[in-house]
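User: Hey, quick favor. My workstation is busy. Could you predict this chain's structure for me?
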Amino acid sequence: MDYLSGWCKSTRRLDGMTAIVTGSNTGIGKETALDLYLRGCHVIMACRDINKANVAKTEIESLHNSTEGKGSLIVRKLDVSSLSSVREFASLMLAEETKIEILVNNAGVMMAPQGITEDGFETHMATNHFGHSLLTLLLLPLLANCSHARVVNVSSMVHQRAELDFDDINYETTKYDPLMAYCRSKVANILFARALSQKLRDHNIGNVSTYSLHPGVISTEISRHFSDTFFRGTTWLFDNVLFWFCKSPRCGAQTTIYCAVDEQCANQSGLYYSDCAVTASSKYSQNYANAEQLWKVTLAALKLREDTLFGDVAPQL
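Assistant: No problem, here it is.
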């Protein structure tokens, strides 16, 4: 499928810049970190499993030991399903870094068995939406402290199947459906990117852009829960049969990379992309009233206030 897909053609260098890529120890997250690293960027690999992240870091560095113009890689602990882990990571970033030009919210779970996190959120919504939303909001001072920063949310085309039930966002009364739980979290990614883009404009912060995207159907570890939620052997079936109809991780990372670095989308914000081009998302996700409602629900769930969030961020137009 790679030859039929869009590829980021930008040769832009990122020397002196800093990026955070969540879930960058494998799959498209690892490919994204690699690409930014080769452009001269200082890349923070924010991962739940430190051991796997260090293995990925060593692999990247070993393969490109003699490559000129590469940047640097560091590994930091981050479990986006845990709000305490997100806050700890954000505090560390605020202490260690002075600016963040690129934040790639990539880590996620797909069709996991029903579960509730330590914070009381449904697993998909906690990991794919609430954790990354909190991370983004806590890092706003570092993002705004740049000439221009980009926040990239990895969503999915399956968002088109879902609408959010704001009265039961954590599946407390609705019968659990692992596919729909995943779809809901992915439409939340798009709505949050739209809402944040508007809020930044409302607060006269014009140097931070937001993006959401569909990476494609990719052969990665995202299928690890399939056999638990569908039937025995589903993970094997996806990895070994449907594999032939999937993008490679390198190809699947291209739209993420495009949104993170390409000059063509530098002045765009709040839009949705696929195959390195602006694409129409679902009608539901294009309705700003839905984005505004998710924004309010998200801030309430995270115990944050809008005036406090933007109070310490200097307006830049």
